[in-house]
Write a structure and sequence with these properties.
Keywords: ATP-binding, Cell membrane, Cytochrome c-type biogenesis, Membrane, Nucleotide-binding, Translocase, Transport. The chain is of the alpha/beta class. It is built from six helices and eight strands. Helix content is 28%, strand content 23%. The strands form two sheets. It has a five-stranded parallel β-sheet, sandwiched between helices. Strands 2-1-4 form a three-stranded antiparallel β-sheet, covered by helices on one side. It is globular and about 45 Å long. Bound molecules: adenosine-5'-triphosphate. Adenosine-5'-triphosphate binds next to helix 1.
């Protein structure tokens, strides 16, 4: 009987090799290597100004690295300033996100709104929402159906959320990782972040 071949290591959903970034003539980090695998929910942490947002934007392809390369598949990036149109209602805004994600116009939005506790706000214009409600509205796009193995790059997703919002987001992150996706998120809220961490923290130094 021939020996069972060793199983191949699972391919990374996102991989960065030898990344280097500079801003304003200052080097933020160099030689940065990172892999995100199915099931990861990793906390990107570090002091203000050390380059976490810069790294997430570089991984998302929104910024070119000074050196190095990133290999990525399907991903969702959520910045800490939510890109919501103030004049759209919460539902319209989510419909717009769904269309950008290639979902059909008949895709039901209710489950995503419900997941973030937004059913009562569905018809309200974004401009009338509080900061925490806006955060929830932006996060609702993550609760839409998406391809297996999607990577989420989230900048300060816990910001402005109350305890209920934090728990809902933790549930969303946990479910995404368990279903074969991967998450890299920043947060200055240690208690909230520790609950969802699966995989090593990635710590940038200032
Ligand atoms: N437009 C810009 N021009 C030059 N330097 C910039 C610019 N934007 C940011 N920086 C610098 O880049 C560095 C990294 O910023 P970045 O926003 O990535 O940090 P961060 O770790 O996400 O910080 P925080 O925890 O405060 O959100 C900071 O030192 C900042 O001063």
């Amino acid at each position: 009987m021939s020996p069972t071949p060793p199983s191949a290591p699972e391919a990374a959903l996102l991989e960065a090799a030898d990344l280097c970034a500079e801003r304003g003539g200052r080097r933020l980090w160099r030689g940065l290597n990172l892999q995100l695998h199915a099931g990861d929910c990793r906390w990107l942490r570090g002091a203000n100004g050390c380059g976490k947002t810069t790294l997430l934007r570089t991984l998302a392809g929104l910024r070119a690295p000074s050196a190095g390369r990133v290999t990525r598949g399907t991903l969702r990036y959520l910045g800490h300033a939510q890109a919501l149109s103030a004049e759209l209602s919460v539902s319209e805004s989510l419909r717009f996100s769904a269309s950008l994600q290639g979902l059909s116009a008949s895709e039901p939005l209710r489950p995503a709104l419900e997941r973030l506790g937004l059913l009562r706000e569905a018809a309200r214009p974004v401009r009338q929402l509080s900061q925490g409600q806006r955060r929830r509205a932006a996060l609702a796009a993550l609760a839409l159906p998406q391809p297996a193995g999607t990577v989420w790059l989230l900048d300060e997703p816990f910001d402005a959320l109350d305890d209920d919002g934090v728990r809902r987001l933790q549930g969303l992150l946990d479910a995404h990782a368990r279903s074969g996706g991967a998450v890299l998120f920043t947060s200055h809220q240690e208690a909230a972040a520790l609950v969802v961490c699966r995989g090593d923290e990635l710590r940038l130094s200032a």
